[in-house]
Amino acid sequence: MATPDLPAALTDRTAFLLRLALARAEAAGEQALAGLGLTGREYGVLALLESGPRRAQHHLGAVLGIDRTTTVALLGGLQARGLVDRAPDPADRRAHRVALTGAGEELRQRAAAALVDCEGRFLRPLRS
């Protein structure tokens, strides 16, 4: 992402530089995930489901800061691709619990590795 010449009034501000770095890091991460057919939000769901028992669907949306409608659509897409499984919550028939499938776990591992590589490349200039 090219940056036009910016005035010192911006580049001397730590908050501005941090926002710029965040935007670039997010764009690089999204690009790395796109190569695997994932978005950042989709990876967030897979990462939250990485370990443990089934998670409540509403919990996933709350942690990721996604509204209910978007959460349902996001999980529906992941389920259609065979990456997650949704089942009714035995304790609350109005709710659903979500778990990774084998394919979802395999993709989560590949995505995590791609993000580690991406972050390494992103941070390399800071380490030299």
TrEMBL record:
Top-rank taxon of the source lineage equals Bacteria
| Gene Ontology molecular-function annotations | DNA-binding transcription factor activity
SUPFAM superfamilies named in the record: Winged helix' DNA-binding domain
Q: Name one Pfam family in it.
A: MarR_2
Lineage summary: Bacteria, Bacillati, Actinomycetota, Actinomycetes, Kineosporiales
Q: Quick one: a GO biological-process term for this protein?
A: response to stress
| Protein name listed in UniProt | HTH marR-type domain-containing protein
Task: Record the organism.
Answer: uncultured Quadrisphaera sp
Q: What residues does the HTH marR-type domain cover?
A: 11-128
